Amino acid sequence: MALREGLVIATHGRHCVVEASGGQHVICHPRGKKLTVVVGDRVQWLPSQDEGTIERITERRNLLYRQDELRTKSFAANLDQVLILVAAEPDFSEQQLARALIACEAEHIDPLIVLNKADLAGAFAQAWERLAPYRAMGYPVLPLAAKPREGPPGAHQASLHALTEHLQGRVTLILGPSGAGKSTLINRLVPGAGAQTGEISQALGSGRHTTTSTRWYWMDAQHQSALIDSPGFQEFGLHHIDPMQLGAYMPDFKPHVAGCKFYNCSHLHEPGCGVILAAQAGEISPSRYQIYSNLFPELRSAG
């Protein structure tokens, strides 16, 4: 029997949903325990009664994942960009944001930072100022009011339109902590997203699987643009990152690394360190240098 082509659009444990070339959705199981599939994988599969078996994963362009001392958690594969959604209220964690950006840099995936709850003027202004170092680094940072609670109707429609333009023709993973507004945003961008999620959950077995971990949504009938929803996270481990490469994955550090006296500089205490001099001169923000100072020893002990 000939292998068929498909796209993994949802996963839960060892179960996944594959969208076949004809558009139909098939519950599949990877063959063997060593084959681990994630949403966004292009796969070759064989039908088996009313389900299927994934035989092979097509080579990935990239894979975004996090890793701590206990486990590795993959988000999705073959991404064009990652939308990191943070909110003006409650306060977002700059350390979580920085870690997600480092993971993107390591996999050469374009990040897009979106600050939600632009309708809360006071809190939003403070949060927007906290993101000034990231705008200075060249990261795109967009305002958003996914579910406006203040201001006239339609006042924040322009920000949603601007965001939509960044998503056109791309596969975008949405990352963010619980409560940032990921589900609200997806429901604004993909009409009927809730119904689609319900169908997938039911297909996977509502008794055994209450919800999918990660889910792919097409934004258009032509299947040119897609969003991938991911579970909220409170920690973002980077134990797969080499601590000596950390500075190269931080755009505000990278230009100053060449000025270091020693090739194996940790940028923490060495004399003649270009990064330390830049931090002292205000060219690297204190919060960013503190994030690096906390993360480097963590990664070194993990190695």
In brief:
This protein is α/β, with parallel strands linked by helices.
| Major β-sheet profile | 5 strands, mixed, barrel
Number of domains: 3
Structural class: alpha/beta
Uncertain regions spanning at least 5 consecutive residues: 206-211
Reported by name, the CATH topology of the largest domain is: Rossmann fold
The string of secondary-structure elements, in order, is: EEEEEEEEHEHHEHEHHEEHHH
CATH class of the largest domain: Alpha Beta
For the record, the CATH architecture of the largest domain stands as 3-Layer(aba) Sandwich
Alpha carbon gap, first and last residue: 45 Å
What portion of the residues fall into strands of 2 or more residues? 25-35%
For the residues shown, what is the average pLDDT? 91
- CA-based shape: globular
Sequence of strands across the biggest β-sheet = 1-2-3-5-4
Number of helices: 9
Rg for CA atoms: 21 Å
Helix content: 25-40%
Care to count the β-strands? 13
Tell me the name of the CATH homologous superfamily of the largest domain.
P-loop containing nucleotide triphosphate hydrolases
What does the model show?
Helices cover 29% and strands 25% of the residues. By secondary structure, it is of the alpha/beta class. The protein folds into three domains: 4-57, OB fold (Dihydrolipoamide Acetyltransferase, E2P); 63-229, Rossmann fold (3-Layer(aba) Sandwich), CATH 3.40.50; 243-302, Probable gtpase engc, domain 3 (Ribonucleotide Reductase Protein R1, domain 1). The chain has a five-stranded mixed beta barrel with strand order 1-2-3-5-4. A two-stranded antiparallel sheet has the order 6-7. A hairpin with a 2-residue loop joins strand 1 (4-12) and strand 2 (15-20). The protein is globular, with a radius of gyration of 21 Å.
